[in-house]
Structure prediction request, 616 residues.
Amino acid sequence: MEDRNRTKDAFTFGVLNSLLESIPAEMAEVLKRTSYHPIFNEVLDFSTAVLNCKGELIASSMGVTVHLGALELCAQAVINHFGLEEIRPGDVLIHNNPFPGGTHLPDVDILVPVFYKEKLVAFTVSRGHHGDIGGANAGSFAGDTTSIFQEGVRIPPTKLYDGGELNEGFRNLLLANVRVPTFTWGDLQAQVAGCRVGEKRMIEMYEKYGPDLIDEMMGWAMDYSESLMRAEIEKIPDGTYSFADYLDNDGIDKEKEVKIHVKVTVKGDTITFDYSGSDPQVKGPANCVFGVVCSATYCAMFNLTDPSIPKNHGCYRPITIIAPEGLVVNARFPAPVVSGNTETSSRIIDTVTGALARVIPEKVTASDSGTATAHIAGGVDPRTGQYYAWYLGADPCAWGARATKDGFECAGGPRIGGHVSQVPMEVFETRYPFFVEKYAFATDSGGPGRFRGGLSGITVIRPVGHDCEIGGANDRCVIPPYGIFGGMPGLHGENKVVHKDGSITPIDRAGGELARDGEIIYFRAPGGGGYGDPLDRDLDHLQHDLDNEYVSVESAERDYGAVVDKSTRQIDHEATETKRKTLKAEWKRGEIFIDQKTEPFAKRPFRIIRMDEEAK
Prediction:
């Protein structure tokens, strides 16, 4: 490293790239520690990254996986708007417009240009989901909007700081249109602080090692990731593979499911994803924009390939994405798109997984919860007299089972979630005027299989001393997460307000419903799908599930073919083996590829795809 004029070897580049990758991690820590809303400092619903001067991803924190693939489009939108000649030292750029470059309005992007000796060399970026960004409903994540104008404040590329000077007019305009301006401004400043730290560290790298070596290392890092991704794609047999999966509905027409279709073509070390067979854009907020399709597709590929591949622009080079404008996967302005970033992106991942499952069965999982459990609420805190608004993934999700293991129980989020976690209930009760009655595993929520789907969670809360507006956008409440290769589906989700008179208001996809003081708000996330024939589940594992009340006696007998002594909850191994031999011939689950039909896991029987059928 002393002679910077010589071509460096992979070891030197690897060390420098590790140093570069540490910068977004430090940015994330600063953002977390200085933020206001628990969606940042507890849920960790944000991402940080370094882009090169062209806006290409170089390094990132794990953050939220579905954020990362769209960061480049965000940077391109900003660069195209201003032109590189108008971006100068001291600028801080802000943007959240899904049309173009964003994902949905709550995800606000902060970009800081990095200059070394008056030359633009990089951008540090943070994307964070704000607890409220205005719009028709507190929390800005209603499941029944019909226009993006109802979803919040749309910010085109703007200079929050111009040459180091705060744009006070913009700040005042933005904060006048959100419900809790202290939180919004505090979280924006946390994003700026994280990016400023990243800017400082990048300049230190350039000063210590010189621009030639750092720029050469960035190019090497992308080429290295590209070569690893191409090697992974080459392991997939050449061919064209199709699959379709479905959203419950669009939030408006509650009786019509929404199709996401993909045709995957593998040719050597390249792969193409064509979503042209998906439904046209819909009236409700199940639409997504092109940035979300990119992020979800890349996320699916990361799930199916070597996890050690550095995540940067090089990974994207062998991947082609086709999503014609006007479809639900690439909606036209001014379509509502808020839940497309979470629910539709999850379904895209499920669809890609289903398309490739038959040719790489050892790498796929059954469907996860398939929802970000997007719950929103707002009201006046009786303790302070101040308005509050929150978006929180209050109930924990589950992952689908794998070829060799059960799915994760009560994970922080579905596969789009990255490092996302839940708000501890003690923190939730402290920060907001609610009492938590229950926060627990949902027994029998994991799809039965040789390997069981992960269990989801049940959350029961009550507003205390006030009435609140409640809503959200949650999928997989009708069509369950699919079980695969004979596995059964995960239990469908359910979200509702139970009123004092006993009546129920569903809030799976809702806007400003009312929950009065002391009424029950019930959330249950969908469970993960099972993998393999439940009749092949190891009986010691099933006994463990019974002992821990992950699986009920009823389910053990009904879904796993077990014979259980109800007084002791112990499995009779000999009787079970005899019963299973009979059921094997009757059930024929080895012939099933995808199961979204088995009740009570499906709210209504939807479909079973057999091994010799194509999922059109």
Observations:
- Residues 365-538+591-616 form one domain.
- The mean pLDDT is 94.
- The CA atoms of residues 502 and 519 lie 10 Å apart.
